[in-house]
Design brief:
By secondary structure, this protein is mainly alpha-helical. It has helices at 2-32, 37-43, 49-60, 64-70. The protein has four helices and no strands. α2 packs across α3. It is elongated and about 40 Å long. The N and C termini lie far apart (47 Å). The model has no long low-confidence stretch (mean pLDDT 86).
Amino acid sequence: AAAETVSGDVRDRALALLHDGRFDAAESLLATTSHPIADVAFLTGFSDQTAFTRAFKRWHGVAPSAYRVAG
């Protein structure tokens, strides 16, 4: 059981780092490029623009397009 907990903790930290990297990349791409949102989604590892937009709204409370405009 202890090994499972350690493995779970390591996995959770790894996933958090992955997500942080995706968030940072998305923010940078939106702020510094004119790539379409669908391209930003693909470049940050999302399967489609809808999944990216939902996740981005959870992170920032606004859609990627609104984040870009507010930039």
